[in-house]
Recover the amino acids of this structure.
């Protein structure tokens, strides 16, 4: 390619010196130098193997001195903003949402055998002692609870014991507590009763070392004669707790 353009340059020079068969135009030394310089630049421009040493030298100096003008600009890491200037956050994926929900559930579910500890009561313990399946409760007394057709009572029994050196008053009437039971694969919410020993509305006092009984009453289908497992579920102050009864 360089030879081709060299021939073109020579032809150009010849055409300048020979402006016709009869008349030759003479150039000054300055004009001749300009023409030669132009021809040389054209040859270098179309020579694929030519490397501008000055430009390459400037690039090498820039790299050695750490000049970032020729370096690639870093990616914009700023958060995208909406028209109102508020930052737009990336929505979590379904997998991330599931992991967050699972982690939150693990943090809020706890297990404790002492209901008093869960409810923040001091000086007493409240623990499950037994359970009862019956169609009539209580069996004797002034209060007679009635079940719905096809259902029976599941009564969870608790022992409340004063473990302090003095008298302790226990008031659960104003406690915002939700009780439910899980029996095998079924579940039920606690009944609201007027039983004086109902744990949901219990108001009592115990002297040092004294123990009293309390109950929670649920309705479950009559066909269940021996539950595989029984768990009391307590929801208190936004936290779920589990007490294993059976």
């Amino acid at each position: 390619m360089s030879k081709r353009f060299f021939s073109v340059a020579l032809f150009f020079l010849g055409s300048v010196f020979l402006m016709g068969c009869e008349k030759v135009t003479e150039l000054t030394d300055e004009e001749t130098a300009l023409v030669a310089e132009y021809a040389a630049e054209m040859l270098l421009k179309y020579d694929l193997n030519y490397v501008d040493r000055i430009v390459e030298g400037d690039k090498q100096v820039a790299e050695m001195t750490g000049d970032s003008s020729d370096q690639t600009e870093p990616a914009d890491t700023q958060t995208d903003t909406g028209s109102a200037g508020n930052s737009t956050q990336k929505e979590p994926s379904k997998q991330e949402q599931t992991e967050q929900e699972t982690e939150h559930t693990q943090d809020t579910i706890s297990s404790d055998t002492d209901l008093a500890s869960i409810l923040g009561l001091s000086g007493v313990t409240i623990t499950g002692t037994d359970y009862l399946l019956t169609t009539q409760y209580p069996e004797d007394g002034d209060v007679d609870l009635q079940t719905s057709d096809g259902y029976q009572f599941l009564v969870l029994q608790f022992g409340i014991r004063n473990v302090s050196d003095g008298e302790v008053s226990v008031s659960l009437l104003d406690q915002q507590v939700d009780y439910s039971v899980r029996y095998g694969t079924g579940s039920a919410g606690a009944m609201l009763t007027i039983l004086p020993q109902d744990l949901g509305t219990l108001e009592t006092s115990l002297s040092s070392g004294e123990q009293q009984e309390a109950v929670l009453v649920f309705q479950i289908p009559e066909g269940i004669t021996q539950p595989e497992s029984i768990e009391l579920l307590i929801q208190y102050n936004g936290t779920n707790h589990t007490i294993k009864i059976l």
The CA atoms of residues 105 and 240 lie 9 Å apart. The chain is about 25% helix and 30% strand. Confidence is low (pLDDT under 50) at residues 68-89, 98-109.
